[in-house]
């Protein structure tokens, strides 16, 4: 959900995470601030800025919310045009217009929440801009990480797929270059929540970061 912000709005930059408003010739959807965190529908709000959109535009706004292994929101908020460039308030609430969800608001207490605020190229296409925001919990929680999303480039050769889902590795797991026992890397993925991009046989693929190659772990190490 978006609401137009007045021109007098003062940007609250997320300096603690190295985030600032970015303007460029290519389209950008920039996280300006996290304004509130809550568990109920429309209780979590962000300030966002859209820039660089020209007509006709192939882009779509997409918002994805995951917590506790469930997907609470997957919204296609439409196709912005040049008149939509500007600043908005953006809220989290029940929506499955872009894909199926497995739970509804309110979000669970004392559970990490991952929010993907994405500008994607085409319906269901790859993300070209936006941010992934992680809260430690929705009840009195705080922001623990922000990752800026950029299109595949020299600085981000492996952007997060919009189809990725959050799953937990309760005990961690050995990492493999391929879905094969002979392809072990020699290092392990620590316990925690990770993005799953696909499965193949007895292996599950994880997305690590923009600058890192995806790795495989045994599927039996991933919580359902």
Characteristics of this structure?
224 residues, mainly beta, SH3 type barrels, 4-stranded antiparallel beta sheet, 44% strand, globular
In percent, how much strand structure appears in the residues?
Answer: 35-45%
Low-confidence stretches: 3-25
DSSP strand tally: 15
Question: How many structural domains does the protein architecture include?
Answer: 2
Across the major sheet, the strand order is 5-4-7-8-9
| Measured distance between first and last alpha carbons | 30 Å
Write a structural description.
The chain is mostly beta strands. 0% of the residues lie in helices and 44% in strands. The chain has two domains: 2-149; 165-221, SH3 type barrels (Roll). The chain has strands at 2-4, 28-36, 45-51, 59-67, 70-76, 86-91, 113-121, 127-135, 143-149, 165-169, 173-176, 184-189, 192-200, 203-207, 215-218. A five-stranded antiparallel beta sheet has the order 5-4-7-8-9, with no helix packed on it. The chain starts with a strand and ends in a 6-residue tail after the last strand.
């Amino acid at each position: 959900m978006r609401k137009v912000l007045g021109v007098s709005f003062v940007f609250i930059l997320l300096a603690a995470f190295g985030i600032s408003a970015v303007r460029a010739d290519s389209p950008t959807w920039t996280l300006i601030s996290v304004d509130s965190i809550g568990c109920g529908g429309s209780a979590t709000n962000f300030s966002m800025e859209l820039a660089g959109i020209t007509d006709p535009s192939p882009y779509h706004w997409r918002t994805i919310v995951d917590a506790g292994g469930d997907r609470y929101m997957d919204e296609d908020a439409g196709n912005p045009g040049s008149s939509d460039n500007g600043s908005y308030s953006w809220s989290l609430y029940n929506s499955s217009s872009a894909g199926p969800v497995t739970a509804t608001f309110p979000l669970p207490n004392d559970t990490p929440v991952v929010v993907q605020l994405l500008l994607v190229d085409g319906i269901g296409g790859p993300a070209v801009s936006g941010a992934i925001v992680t809260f430690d919990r929705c009840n009195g929680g705080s922001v623990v990480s922000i990752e800026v999303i950029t299109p595949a480039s020299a600085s981000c050769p492996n952007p997060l797929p919009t189809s990725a889902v959050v799953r937990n590795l309760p005990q961690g797991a050995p990492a493999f270059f391929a879905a094969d026992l002979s392809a072990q890397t020699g290092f392990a993925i620590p316990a925690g929540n990770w993005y799953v991009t696909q499965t193949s046989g007895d292996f599950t693929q994880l997305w690590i970061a923009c600058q890192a190659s995806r790795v495989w772990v045994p599927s039996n190490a991933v919580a359902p």
